[in-house]
Design brief:
mainly alpha, globular
Length: 304
């Protein structure tokens, strides 16, 4: 049920919120290695190179490019996987890793091209669909992301991550009801998907359903209390329902987790100056989290 802010000063109605983010969750580091046997070199007696002969450039290996990616040297990883895919053009995973590296380095165009090439080689690679949709959302193409995610769900209809990303795309298009439905689907498949909970809560905040946002955000924080974004978004829901003291705790937790989180710092400074109505009922966040767990069970039972 959508509620309005209670016990809030008139000036707060026009005040601009500093919002937290949706899921930008970093993909799990790839554990696969080169799919073909790496070249090996057997040496006997060392031979001194002829100074008049050009020195051969050692080819870039998958392992070298992967090492750069794992060290978060994403520019080097892009260079490495670009070279690798030239020597192994039939390996879809090389293009997938090039896509991840380019995305992480901020090169969305190269990332999209790489993910599409990976899918042209293996149309069943769900992770390429998922990360292509992330790139499309970030590039302001949520409608294209929805098409990509439909293809992912044709391959794996049980992918909770695909439904979560579908929710993000719907949110970007302003399709609130469809976004909430997608987050429900994601949580029905993965009841502990804390990022789906966070995204659902943020979507409800944007819709003005502040009371409804409290439950999924309380549950997300209960599962992963060390994520600053979750704490910040919970603080927003608490603040907009008049629970200023609890909001201070949530914002402070976000800043403690990440001292560079500017949005949470601004929110904390603002809410500390607000006086809570003494008649505001006390909230038990554990109870709210339990209520949301039950909500997920109810969704699953209603679908059976």
């Amino acid at each position: 049920m959508i509620t309005t802010l209670r016990h809030t000063p008139v000036w707060l109605v026009t005040w601009l919120f500093v919002l937290g983010g949706c899921s930008s969750k970093t993909p799990k580091q790839a554990s696969a290695r080169e799919t073909t046997s790496p070249e090996s070199t057997v040496t006997s007696t060392p031979v001194q190179p002829d100074p008049t002969t050009p020195t051969a450039v050692e080819p870039v290996t998958y392992a070298g490019a992967d090492s750069a990616y794992r060290a978060k040297r994403f520019g080097d990883a892009v260079s490495g996987f670009t070279s690798y895919t030239r020597t192994k053009p039939s390996n879809p995973f090389g293009f997938y890793m090039l896509g991840l590296s380019a995305w992480k380095s901020g090169d969305l165009k190269t990332a999209e091209q790489a993910f599409r090439q990976s899918l042209s080689l293996d149309s069943t690679h769900v992770k390429s669909y998922l990360n292509l949709s992330r790139v499309q959302i970030e590039a302001g193409q949520p409608d294209s992301a929805l098409i990509t995610l439909e293809q992912a769900l044709k391959v794996d209809e049980t992918s909770s991550e695909a439904y979560r990303l579908q929710g993000r795309a719907h949110d970007a298009l302003g399709e609130s009801a469809a976004a909430v439905k997608s987050y429900h689907e994601a949580l029905s498949l993965a009841p502990r998907d804390e990022w789906a909970m966070n995204n659902l809560g943020l979507s409800l905040i944007h819709q003005g359903a502040f009371d409804d946002a409290l439950r999924p955000l309380a549950r997300a924080v209960q599962i992963e209390p060390g994520v600053a974004t979750f704490q910040n978004n919970l603080g927003m829901a608490l603040e907009r329902t008049g629970h200023y003291a609890a909001a201070v705790d949530a914002y402070r937790a976000a800043v403690t987790i990440d001292s560079t989180f500017g949005k949470a710092s601004v929110n904390l400074q603002r809410v500390q100056s607000l006086k809570e109505d003494p008649n505001t009922p006390t909230l038990d966040l554990k109870v709210l989290a339990q209520q949301f767990e039950q909500q997920i069970r109810d969704w699953n039972e209603n679908e059976q």
